[in-house]
């Protein structure tokens, strides 16, 4: 078991993981349903299939990604050949959240393994069915000294964080992200933090309102709004608000029917704590659509909230649920006053046909990533880096980048011996002019 040096071994274990996931796909989908009624379609699209696709891409590319890369040498070192070696960090800790509990736990594990690391995964305690099937699948696919799943809650997480790691990959809330960063600082351990934030969705007067409503309803209410890159709030031109709300209501009914509670395509809130948090949030607001809730199965219907105060709970913290506040603006100053109130978001969405407005919005604000005339879709392109900035996170992953973040990039200059230019060696007398000329030239 030489996962550090033997790429063939890494590939074999990843193939085993692929086999075990494919074999157990129905059970994984069932576990996700049992945890919070994640609809089958969403479970396959955003969890099992996503991981399967990540595995296939990684298995196909691992030899290439692991190769040392030759880079153009510096003329100062002439004659030399220069390389970047990809070296595994060593012991990696992955801590995962509950909202996409299969995908967000396993994708970092796959890349950490591909890059030659030993991994400990702590999945979320809030999705016990999914965490347990992850543990079984990992146990079947890897030697316990290679990849291990440690189940448990905050205390387990704290114990793990107290140990020394060579890399920590954390996905979760900003608040816990800070705890992870502090623990990592103790040993100067490098980290990736995939966090959250309040993601704005700006709609100007040129936007195609019907299509905009359709795409926002999809991105907001998938997983019952419990998506880190879901639109958090709408900022729309004041005179378009009424029309837009009509379209939003039409699209919600089109997607989930009139009896949303009975729809097989609508998930539940993860637990009582979050259900109470969300129902408290909407209790004091002007609800213009939805607002139904049932604590028997932690149901909250897709809910539209009309122009809440910026100081209200719904506008103060990340919503992370199916409540959609609709705010209005009349000028770009209004947009600025609202967006600048918050920390840099994880995602940012602009709906417009006006290229100069779009470019202005994209370049004026700092955020992790986003879409023009869509929501959430940037997550699915493996060629795009996925991650936050500022309070929404640190570092980015997906595709080859995931392999790279779990590898130390070791720089090597291989000097040739057939020539040894005397210029750099002491005594320096009379060499300064010549070296300055050379430096000017290169
Ligand atoms: P969380 O921060 O509460 O928990 C995440 C993990 O940290 C869990 O495994 C949990 O056991 C552990 N944990 C919780 N409290 C801890 C503590 N005090 N000390 C040590 N470990 C602790 O997050 P969550 O509720 O599972 O997920 C929701 C949050 O995650 C949202 O803010 C969302 O935006 C964010 N998120 C971000 C991404 C992303 O890719 N950027 C993806 C999904 C979720």
Automatic annotation (TrEMBL):
<feature type="active site">
    <location>
        <position position="228"/>
    </location>
</feature>
<dbReference type="InterPro" id="IPR016160">
    <property type="entry name" value="Ald_DH_CS_CYS"/>
</dbReference>
<dbReference type="InterPro" id="IPR016162">
    <property type="entry name" value="Ald_DH_N"/>
</dbReference>
<dbReference type="InterPro" id="IPR015590">
    <property type="entry name" value="Aldehyde_DH_dom"/>
</dbReference>
<dbReference type="GO" id="GO:0006081">
    <property type="term" value="P:aldehyde metabolic process"/>
</dbReference>
<keyword id="KW-0520">NAD</keyword>
<dbReference type="InterPro" id="IPR012394">
    <property type="entry name" value="Aldehyde_DH_NAD(P)"/>
</dbReference>
<dbReference type="InterPro" id="IPR016163">
    <property type="entry name" value="Ald_DH_C"/>
</dbReference>
<comment type="similarity">
    <text>Belongs to the aldehyde dehydrogenase family.</text>
</comment>
<dbReference type="InterPro" id="IPR016161">
    <property type="entry name" value="Ald_DH/histidinol_DH"/>
</dbReference>
<feature type="active site">
    <location>
        <position position="194"/>
    </location>
</feature>
<keyword id="KW-0560">Oxidoreductase</keyword>
<feature type="domain" description="Aldehyde dehydrogenase">
    <location>
        <begin position="6"/>
        <end position="411"/>
    </location>
</feature>
<dbReference type="Pfam" id="PF00171">
    <property type="entry name" value="Aldedh"/>
</dbReference>
<dbReference type="GO" id="GO:0004029">
    <property type="term" value="F:aldehyde dehydrogenase (NAD+) activity"/>
</dbReference>
<dbReference type="GO" id="GO:0005737">
    <property type="term" value="C:cytoplasm"/>
</dbReference>
<protein>
    <recommendedName>
        <fullName>Aldehyde dehydrogenase</fullName>
    </recommendedName>
</protein>
<dbReference type="InterPro" id="IPR029510">
    <property type="entry name" value="Ald_DH_CS_GLU"/>
</dbReference>
